[in-house]
Amino acid sequence: MSDDKHVITRRDFVRGTVGATLGVAAMGGTLEALAAPVPTSHVVLVREQWVLDGQHAVNSGILKIMLRNLLTKVTGKPDPISAWLSLVKTDDVIGLVATDHLNKTHPELIELVQASLMESGVPKSNIRDAQGGPEKARACTALIALPALKAHWLTGIGTVLKNYITLSGNPSSYHGANNANLGEIWNMPHVKGKTKLVVVDALRPLCDKGPQPDPRYLWDYKGLIAGRDPVAVEAVCLKVILQKRQALRGEPWTLSPPPLCVEMADKKYGLGTSRMEQIQLDRTGWNVDALV
Amino acid sequence: MTFLRSHLVLNSVYFLSSENLLDLGPDCEVATTNYGQGPAKAIGNAKPARLMLARYANEAAAAKALHHFRRIYLPEKLNGPKASLIGDNGVVAIEDGWMGFARSGRGLALVFESPDEASARLLLNDFTRILAKREASRE
User: Fold this and answer.
1) Does the distance separating the beta carbons of B75 and A260 come in below 8 Å?
2) I need a surface site. Which of A55, A113, A132, B5 has the fewest CB within 10 A?
3) How many structural domains comprise chain B?
4) What was the ipTM of the complex prediction?
């Protein structure tokens, strides 16, 4: 019985999407709580129509402009240098955590982030690949998450939260329904508090299947999705994936396994908000088939 | 219509919980489908209810599964001052519509997202009758 309180049911999801007030009321919230302003997380969606050509090759010049727009919008700073310096220090050891499997982070994006950090005064020797194991994250003082947008056959969605699965040292323990616990990795001592920015490569996402990327489910979305709240960014990513799946099928097409990690990262691990009504989505650029 | 034995398969069709609330497994048979209710013209626009029919290895297993389901899925209806569900049959309003359950022997019928109480009860009555008839024909 003691574990019952951690079981997620369909009702939890319904409560989460119906609205914040229902949840507060169910918990016996006060009128003051109901009247309080809804906290928001800021997520930026930048899209450009010509960032990919007809063969899906990246135009690095346009991608650089997208990264600039993203950095200034996320931080409110006027340029990339001041944006980066509001997120990291020049003597930080910065780990870039990109995705290296299934639907990989485009190398052009990783290179641009690295170059942009160097232009901001971070020595090249202080910028490293932190994907692959806990010791890599342990050696860093700051992390930049650079996952690619995708559904995943083992965790439902395999984007922001799952991007740190190797940093746990025990990736397989988070597969299947246990994806609900992915948020705990972000609270591990060698990870907690280090993530300064999440930039999701949504240039050409994958909305289903695996273990190999099925070309039927890849599409040119031509976007970057970013923010400082990993759960809010993941919630926006999940909506894009689910909307694309619904568009393909003409009816709701659920993910399997269910992406429990998103709501649990909010409710159990306190990493951010998973509720769309608490997320301020700041869009810029191309708006065709944005899905959110 | 989907036939299944595993809660993981059930979750890919209709997510119910991260845990195996209905104690599904190799000894169970489950059929589930959406069911449009109301006049034929309205069905196209109406949100369908979700039906599940489960048959367990024996009556004790079905009763245990129902108890497990109610304890986790409907805790506020089972305990405390608002308790309204005891016994093997029940219909109750929850966040996404009317939800009901009915056990008959080793069979268990469940209805989710029904638009109203009467429809949920009607479906449960029909399906428990079907379950009982199938059991009788086997014996």
Assistant:
1) no
2) A55
3) 1
4) 0.85
> Tokens for A253?
């097409």
Contacts with B, A 235-264, CB within 8 Å: 254, 256-258, 260
- Residue A8 phi/psi, 5° resolution? -90, 130
Probe site for chain A from B95, B96, B99 (most A CB atoms < 10 A): B95
- What single DSSP character describes residue B4? E
**Triad B49, A157, A232: Cα angle to 5°:** 95
The residues facing A55 across adjacent strands are none
Are residues B8 and A257, on separate chains, in Cβ contact within 8 Å?
yes
Distance from the Cα of A98 to chain B's closest Cα (Å) equals 28
CB-based contact, A22 to chain B, within 8 Å: yes
What is the mean pLDDT of each successive set of 10 residues along chain A, which is 292 residues long? Answer: 61 54 35 48 94 94 93 94 96 97 95 97 97 96 98 93 96 91 96 97 93 92 97 96 93 88 91 92 92 94
H-run or E-run covering A225: strand A223-227
User: For chain A, how big is the Rg over CA atoms in Å?
Assistant: 19
Question: Which residue in chain A has the smallest CA separation from B18?
Answer: A8
CB contacts < 8 A, A to B, total 55
Stretch (H or E) spanning A283: strand A279-285
- The whole domain housing B98 covers 2-138
Cα separation, A221 vs A149, whole angstroms: 10
